[in-house]
Design goal:
Inosine-uridine Nucleoside N-ribohydrolase, Chain A; 8-stranded mixed β-sheet; two-stranded antiparallel ribbon; globular; binds beta-D-ribofuranose; binds calcium ion
Length: 311
């Protein structure tokens, strides 16, 4: 089977880092054509550096493009829970290669052209880079096979009562992406929250002696300690589930709804509103939304992936 061509757009970020590691361990299934980073979990200089450093540390040479430092029209709100650099207390050796010479929006376009209609775009941060790419290159919408997003939520939020972080940070961008006509899968917060990192997973990873597992354990340990400080006993690796859905689609069950993103009201900014009752008759369903997740299957998949790198 030929490998799936992928562009990975992240705001690395602790759980983005685990998603990146999973992608970097899956190169038998995917062909990573390029990466880009956007401001979100941390300012842009941190998210870009983290992304390049992780790719480089794992020996991947695909270009890493610098993306948007700010949402389309709003002031940036960075997350507090990923620490100042986005990776908490985890320090990664600095990459020895430069960033891509292309901007993120040109990089996405270039990879889409290269993949000849087969590109899967994975977005695990605010959607600013893809929204800009669609504005600058209007024909891009016909060149991406599928967008897979960690973002939004069929119900509830983590940044406000109604809204998930990636959607909240740049709701206008997510709206553009969801209205683009590109087949889109939303792996939303209501589903990623069901996958709480189990103790057995981190203990299995701790036994391993490969660079992927060692970095993942450091990141997960930080996440658990940090979450305890905020009064939670669990951690969610949201972004890795979105990646998993590309290489192991059975991990989620989806249903297609018409979805739009609230941008007007401050109270509901970034709320992804799905037409569950089919009352909006003049709009076709536009987003495949994850509704169920095989939690055990997800963790087994992840542990097996890390074990596969054992010498
Ligand atoms: C999302 O927000 C970020 O903090 C995480 O990296 C994830 O992409 C979860 O709401
Ligand atoms: Ca993220």
């Amino acid at each position: 089977m030929s490998r799936i061509p992928v562009h990975i757009d992240v705001d690395t970020g602790t759980d983005d880092a685990i998603a990146l590691l999973c992608a970097l361990m899956s190169e038998d299934k995917i062909d990573i054509l390029s990466f880009s980073a956007v401001a979100g979990n941390a300012p842009l200089d941190c998210t870009t550096k983290n992304t390049l450093d992780i790719a480089d540390m794992m020996g991947n040479k695909a270009p890493v493009a610098i993306g948007a430092a700010e949402p389309l029209i709003r002031d940036l709100r960075v997350a507090i829970s990923h620490g100042k650099t986005g990776l908490g207390n985890v320090v990664i050796p600095s990459a020895t290669r430069p960033f891509s010479e292309l901007s993120a929006y040109d990089q996405i376009y270039e990879s889409a052209c290269k993949a000849d209609g087969e590109l899967i775009y994975l977005g695990t941060g605010p959607q600013t880079n893809l929204a800009l790419a669609l504005k600058v290159h209007p024909d891009l919408k016909d060149k991406i096979k599928r967008v897979v997003l960690m973002g939004g939520s069929l119900i509830g939020g983590n940044t406000t009562q109604t809204s998930e972080f990636n959607a909240y940070v740049d709701p206008e961008a997510m709206k553009i992406v969801m209205r683009s006509g590109i087949p889109t899968t939303m792996v939303g917060l209501d589903v990623t929250l069901q996958t709480e990192l189990p103790v057995w997973v981190i203990e299995e990873l701790r036994k391993l002696d490969n660079k992927y597992a060692k970095l993942a354990v450091q990141v997960m340990d930080f996440m658990l300690i940090r979450n305890k400080e905020y009064g939670f006993d669990v951690a969610n690796i949201h972004d890795a589930l979105a990646f998993c859905a590309i290489v192991y689609p059975e991990v989620i069950k989806t249903k297609k709804y018409f979805i739009d993103v609230a941008t007007a009201e401050e109270m509901v900014r970034g709320m992804t509103v799905a037409d569950f009752r089919d009352v909006i008759t003049d709009k076709e369903p536009n987003v495949d939304c994850a509704e169920e997740v095989d939690v055990q299957g997800f963790w087994n998949w992840m542990v097996d992936l890390f074990k596969s790198k054992e010498a």
